[in-house]
Specification:
Length: 153
């Protein structure tokens, strides 16, 4: 055993640094994956609002990275569902709450608007439509209603 030599300190240091860097890269990739799971966010975008004589059609897209659940729609500050001021359904006639996956789009149909509560509704009238989600976020949009077939802004 007298003729054996240990690894030189320089080689040992290089090996330790290489192993440390490899472990740090692996941990960084692992943490990035975990952080991506917990940092999703909802973001609704109201694309159009159109008056269809007996209803209002609101097209909404979820531009966020997590699911969004619409729990109520406010017309001029009055909650439709909570105050029974109107009825809200989606394209397939499902009532609220309506859940949108990331990237999904839905057209909400608001019918039976109680004009005694929310005021006059019709073409040429300014209306504030606000969506409320399960997470407590509000997405308002003020618009002048246009006839069915014209684009709302």
């Amino acid at each position: 055993m007298a003729g054996r030599r240990a690894i030189s300190p320089v080689i040992a240091t290089v090996i330790i640094v290489a192993v440390t860097i490899a472990v740090a890269i692996a941990v960084a990739f692992w943490m990035t994956g975990i952080i991506g799971l917990f940092t999703g966010f909802e973001q609704l975008q109201i694309i159009t609002i159109i008056d269809d004589s007996d209803s209002i059609e609101v097209t909404v897209r979820n531009t966020g990275t997590s699911r969004a659940s619409i729990t109520d729609v406010y017309i001029n500050g009055i909650p439709c569902v909570a105050r029974q001021a109107c009825t809200v359904t989606d394209d397939q006639n499902n009532p609220l709450p309506i859940t949108l996956a990331p990237g999904a789009q839905v057209t909400l149909e608001i019918t039976g608007v109680d004009t005694d509560l929310v005021g006059n509704i019709g073409p040429g009238v300014s209306v504030e439509v606000k969506l409320l989600t399960a997470s407590g976020k509000e997405y308002p949009k003020l618009i002048v209603l246009q006839q069915y077939g014209s684009q709302g802004g």
